[in-house]
Amino acid sequence: MESIKYCRDLEIIGKYDVVVAGSGPAGLAAAITSARMGRKTALVERYGLLGGNLTSGLVGPIMGSVSDGTIADEFEKKLGVYHNGREHEVEKAKTVFLEMAQEAGVRVFLQTPAVDVLKDGNLIAGLVVATKSLPKVIQGKIYIDATGDGTVSSLAGAEIMFGREPDNLVQPATLMFIISNVDDSRVVDCGKEDYPSGTPEHRFVALCKQKSEEGELPPNVSIVRLYKTVRKGERMINATQENRINPLKAEDIFQAEIDLRKQIDQVVQFLRKYMPGCENCYVKESANTLGVRESRRVKGRYVLRAEDLILGRKFEDVMVHNARFVIDIHNPTGGGQAENREQDATPIGAAASVQPYDIPYGCFVPLGVENLYTAGRCISGTHRAHASYRVMKICLAMGQAVGTAAAICAERSITPPNVDVKLVQDALAAQGVQLFH
To answer: Thinking of the domain 11-165+295-329+351-430, which architecture would CATH place it in?
Structure first.
């Protein structure tokens, strides 16, 4: 590949205790937690708003569960969706997240993507960011990669895992959208595939599959999921799907945007024709960015495996306790959920169940980079394990745990491989997080 040498003197625009890259659920929780613990904290975000897929990605379901007392409870209460089973109001979330960061004392850099790292041996010496006035450097004692794509870890030379075995395919990408003018009294809400036979939901799932095969829905859109929002007459829709995508390639991202926006129109026409109460529905809003389920996974001191989840394994160095969500693998090669039988023992249309499991400290500590943590879907785990822990509520708890650990490291001038995990656990317990019950 042809290359060109490029160099420039880079201005240092800030020195911090903790620098967090990415403001999705994990990164936002990490930055807020670190700042609340008294550490000077910077949060670097590539878009012009905080929240990641909770806002720009229009992902409503704050799915998954964890032990009581985590920051996820606070987020759900502030968004008005605590224990009510509805999807949050995205416009409200945009303001709530900014206020939470500001109140905690986080220095937020918006529209400032991380583009490179400076290294000093095995240490990150600075994060290079693209500002509106040329590339700059932000320095920290401890860095947290919450980019989802493991961008900082990759730039720093960490060991990367990608996709499933043996073909390295990742889960498909999606564009979420919201429809309005829905008759709440008639619509059938359908958020999964495995409903009891004979129910309206089961009949709708079967219809989706049939119309996908007949061409009224795209061939890889074999299920249309509808979720209630906090507003009457609205439904959040999870249906569009782009298979065989590499979400790290610009050309794939662009093509997916084109294909998925065409799919939105097809799905809306399908709902108007076949879903009672949706005859006059229209698209109120669509995601501003591609919804990527899976890309890089950063290998850490421990690699979480599907067997750990299925058996509900507990760890002495627990950071996230009683995490639970099905092994929810959206088919990388076709429609629906779960991989084909050759790749996964789970039948098509089903999702492997798990017992409440722990995520240990080692999953957040990348190999080969001394002053770096990961948080969110890029932590250390297998393709199948990742399909469970990648969801919002679990990622929020991850962020709190890593933000706590980073604050302790910065305060004591130690690095993640050398921290006493008991100190982190005690600090989480002081915040109200249950780790052993």
So the answer is: 3-Layer(bba) Sandwich (3.50)
